[in-house]
Write a structure and sequence with these properties.
The chain is an alpha+beta fold and 285 residues long. The chain folds into 2 domains: 85 residues, no CATH class; 186 residues, no CATH class. It has 8 helices and 17 strands. The strands form 3 sheets. Strands 7, 8, 9, 10, 11, 15, 16 and 17 form an 8-stranded mixed sheet that branches. The protein has a 6-stranded mixed sheet with strand order 3-1-2-4-5-6, covered by helices on one side. It has a 3-stranded antiparallel sheet with strand order 12-14-13.
């Protein structure tokens, strides 16, 4: 069966279509975007291309929003594809706020993990998954301006950068990691290896947890005020430039309604126990 020549990714009402030529690229895109893939033919706002490179097993990504990038279909190439697709999905999106954040669920309650790159967002997401939470995203969480509309998780594989790979290897089995895409640039772990019974959850966050990785730091969990969390959330507001007041009123409303904490850690030791203590304080268990 011949693979289609166009692969459309849909998120928060926006569409990006990637044109490709080989079955290998189709399998790669399916690894990255299977939960966001739009099967039906639709007119996309953006078209990207992945074409064969000059060398064997190399490809070139080109299109709107960046310079052409060439390489093998590895973790680094995946990161570039993610960046290009996300940029074009959010560039003109004014239907809600997209937070740079992970999200997991504990007993059906959503835990939002906002954070800038390098703060430990994905590694803490991985730690909570290993502790029994279910996966929603490690990259984007979208809250529509229409309160009646569902909250959306950018459900992609769990992406672990090379700097966090050694620590994350302690969380998951060798068999699980062997089934993931891994190389010197990190890991791309299909989330269904972690959540065989995956289901989407569109509830608003019940807890905001700000991860802060500091080498050799003792584990601590600190409660944050609505003012503190509002400021931190605004730094993670990816598409604020498209919104009236940059989405500040909506951020403040969520900050006032949602308990928020900062978790500082230098290793994963004790995180599961500390989170169970927090769940008890919140009345979740």
């Amino acid at each position: 069966m011949k693979s289609p020549s166009h692969y459309t990714v849909t998120f928060a009402g926006q569409h990006v279509t990637i044109e490709y030529e080989s079955g290998e690229v189709y399998e790669f895109l399916s690894l990255l975007f299977s939960d966001l893939h739009e099967e039906a033919a639709i007119e996309s706002e953006t078209l990207l291309w992945i074409s064969a490179g000059e060398a064997e097993d190399e490809y070139v990504l080109s299109g709107v929003g960046g310079n052409p990038f060439g390489g093998c279909l590895d973790v680094r190439f995946a990161a570039v594809v993610f960046d290009a697709v996300i940029y074009n999905l959010l560039n003109d999106n004014s239907q809600g706020i997209a937070f740079h954040a992970g999200a997991v669920a504990h007993e059906g309650k959503v835990i939002l993990l906002p954070g800038e790159s390098g703060f430990g967002k994905s590694s803490m997401t991985a730690c909570l998954l290993a502790a029994g939470c279910s996966y929603l995203t490690d990259e984007l969480y979208f809250i529509p301006l229409d309160d009646s509309a569902p909250r959306l998780s950018f459900t992609r594989p769990l992406c672990i950068k090379s700097g966090s790979a050694e620590a994350v290897r302690e969380l998951f089995s060798e068999d699980l990691l062997a089934a993931a895409l891994g190389d010197q640039y990190g890991y791309i772990i299909p989330h269904r290896l972690l959540n065989p019974e995956f289901k989407k959850i569109s509830a608003p966050p019940s807890l905001i947890l700000i991860p802060k990785y500091t080498a050799d730091s003792p584990l601590s969990i600190e409660k944050l005020s609505p003012a503190q969390i509002s400021t931190l959330l605004m730094t993670c507001d990816v598409n604020g430039r498209n919104l009236e007041d940059h989405g500040f009123r909506q951020v403040v409303r969520m900050a006032r309604a949602t308990p928020a904490y900062r978790i500082t850690y230098g290793s994963f030791h004790g995180v599961a126990e500390a989170m169970n203590t927090l769940y008890k304080e919140l009345g979740w268990i």
